[in-house]
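@here heads up, posting the sequence + SMILES for the adenosine-5'-triphosphate run so it's all in one place. Ping me if the SMILES looks off, I pulled it from an old spreadsheet.
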Amino acid sequence: MSDTVTYRPPIFSLQRVWTLASSTFTQLVRMKTFYFLAVFAVLVIAASNLNLLYTPVQQLKVIRETSLGAMSIFSWLFAISATAVLIPRDLEDRTLYTILSKPVPRLEYLVGKLMGVLLVIGVALALMYAFFSVILYFQEYRIISNEMAHMAQNPRYTDQDRASEAAMIAAYGPDLNLLIAVLAVFLKSAVLAAVAMLVSTFASSSLFTIIISTVIFLIGHFHKMATDFWVVEQQGGMITRILGEILVLVIPDFQIFNIADSVSGGQTVSLNLVTQMSALALMYVAIFTIASWFLFSDKEF
Amino acid sequence: MSSPAVEVDNLTKIFSLSLRRDYLVAVQNLSFTVAAGEVYGLIGPNGSGKSTTMKVILGLMKATRGSTRIFGLDSRDVRSRHQVGFLPENPYFYKHLTGKETLHFYGKLCGLKKRDRNERCAELLALVDLEDAADRRLGGYSKGMLQRIGLAQAIIQRPQLVILDEPTAGVDPSGSRKIRDLIFQLKEDGVAVILCSHLLEQVQEVCDRVAIMQKGKMLREGALNELIAIEDEVELVMKNLPPDLQAQIEKLVNDDAQAQMVRAGHPRTTLERLFLSETEGEEGSAHE
Ligand SMILES: Nc1ncnc2c1ncn2[C@@H]1O[C@H](COP(=O)(O)OP(=O)(O)OP(=O)(O)O)[C@@H](O)[C@H]1O
Ligand SMILES: [Mg+2]
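bot reply: prediction finished. Complex structure tokens:
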């Protein structure tokens, strides 16, 4: 028995996870990742000024589509590349030696890194969401007042016509559904980052991680198709079917997070779907983190 | 009774190389103990398994066979690392952090509270002479500066054991002397130190005990004084010895049946000499 350890330190400390996460956040921010926000702002402003050919509703739709599309691309690109680079870099720079020779369990290290990446994505998405909501709000206001002025000149339109036109346009303004769509983008990239982390614990290089994660990401969009094909209809030979079932089991279904398209089209989303989506994402992240932990705790440096 | 700072028990570490069924025995049946408060030198030629041994002690690598313990706790237990500070060879830290932020980062990982951390960081920055560079990012640090911030990081939580892998590599002579003084200071504070260095003079100066490794095996181990003492020789150190008296002494010795004059002059059996004779003696090429 040792008498030097006078207290029993916690095996898992949220404070240490937070230290690692915030350091990762700082690292990524100082890598100038937020420059993407400037690109995003330019994109959104450009999209909102491209109004020559469109009907009022279409104008707002273009802003919604462009913004959500850009947010989605940023998120998945960042989730894969940042996660794929971070851990190998710590290893190469031997920063890992000094971190793991402190009382830091390997699980905490992984969770901290993942949280750092997600923190950057979360903050970036929040900023982008805020920016494009403001743009959308002003555009909605401008378009409605233009439209009203236009309709006022024409005696054919009744007050009721005008009110319903305004309401129709307003349905494409900033709303809760957009926020939900952004949440879906975030959840999707969280799952993707967890996948990339798992791959990076056994990959030999960042490039390998990026390629494999991207492939998994793409396959994950055909999840339902694959399930129907291999599992439900029992198609294909024995071996392909077993392989298919394993794939379906291992690869997360990314399609379920794809509500951005319907949302930018103005559809509403049920609260039920939101909770379902969040629960599923949480489950995927947990499973992939635990799997990464198993591989990572056997790793030698 | 408190447990020894480090116990290495029959440690063997084998690396399997690439895809071929090739393997490399980096450490073989190594055993040693470092008592609390002792300064222990681990020396050996390049590739003799010193860094590997340290990594196993720190839980960065798994022992193939045998075990290692820190203050009685198995190295595989995370809690064993509460009392350790480690400076790896050629350390490299997060380039995006400043010197001060780096120390805070490691302090937080060790669970230091804010007030304590602030105090400790200021103290350590002064100790390693990096106060001026405290707010500069490590990306712009020189090799010796990185080494020094690494040293500060290693002792941030006042550990009872400090493991230093070539702490003086790339450090200028005055910095190197400072590191030596720091080790003395640690010793005074009752901190155990494992020092791995190729600067044998320094090892000789600071270490209580020394182990010489070669090809993963322990060649010699023991208290430094005993290791470098030559049992069947007696050293007479004289000052202002006139040449004729010296001639008389030599004559007296030569007249004796058993006694024999080995050499006269300025005798100094050093760790360096021992090291060379031990490690080269294996190859059978050296003499003396
Ligand atoms: N991760 C590894 N994979 C394969 N072989 C390794 C690995 N790490 C070390 N080795 C081998 O183990 C042996 C011992 O290496 P180690 O780094 O412990 O030597 P060292 O005594 O620290 O040498 P130096 O004085 O050069 O620092 C070497 O032959 C080295 O090539
Ligand atoms: Mg070494």
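MO: The CA atoms of residues 68 and 260 of chain A lie 7 Å apart.
MO: One more: Confidence is low (pLDDT under 50) at residues 1-6 of chain A.
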